[in-house]
Design goal:
Blueprint: H1 8-11, E1 15-17, E2 28-32, H2 45-54, E3 64-68, H3 77-87, E4 93-96, H4 99-113, E5 123-126, H5 136-147, E6 152-157, E7 160-166
Parallel strand pairs: 1-5, 2-3, 3-4, 5-6
Antiparallel strand pairs: 6-7
Helix pairs in contact: 2-3, 4-5
């Protein structure tokens, strides 16, 4: 019997993907338009356009911006479109929603660009725990994409992974 310790994980053909490695750097901002509405509920076009024109949009340079209205106001679609015309010059991305929707959209863009051909016929582990806000949907998007090429897809760490998919 040998006393040599063999690291089977290091010697395996497993490939680990850590979605945290793809995290796009940049400040995330929620832009709530409620303060630009009359009594927080009514959008007055003339006032709204004036506020948009006078606002310092440069503060959103290289930010990711989620536009929202936290009140029950009925906001016409053009209002968000107008804000986007100002933000688009400075922000990296603008959308309607909250931070979770923003993060999901960012990861959707990233995952769509990943060339998965490298993972063809290989066992892949999608690393679980992250210190950065990786949205749950990113894991689903990546799993779906990998299923078209990978031999198997697992979740977690090599020492304690959860099998999700195995090609037959």
């Amino acid at each position: 019997m040998s006393d040599e310790i063999i690291n089977r994980v290091a010697n395996s053909k497993l490939i680990t993907i850590n979605l945290e490695d793809f995290y796009p750097e940049g400040k995330r901002v929620v832009f709530d338009i409620k303060d630009w509405l009359f009594e927080g509920l009514i959008l007055r076009e003339k006032d709204f356009r004036l506020k948009a024109k006078e606002h310092d949009w440069s503060q959103y340079q290289d930010n990711y911006v989620a536009l929202t209205c936290s009140t029950d106001a009925i906001v016409p679609g053009w209002a968000y479109m107008l804000l986007t015309t100002y933000l688009n010059t400075f922000a990296k991305k603008v959308l309607i929603g909250n931070l979770e929707i923003l993060e999901t959209s960012l990861y959707q863009d990233i995952i769509n660009k990943i060339d998965v051909s490298f993972y063809t016929d290989k066992p892949v582990i999608i690393k679980g725990c992250a210190n950065k806000p990786v949205p749950e949907n990113a894991y689903i998007l990546l799993t779906t994409k990998l299923m078209s090429v990978a031999k198997s897809v697992m979740y977690g760490e090599a020492c304690s992974s959860v099998p999700l998919y195995k090609r037959r």
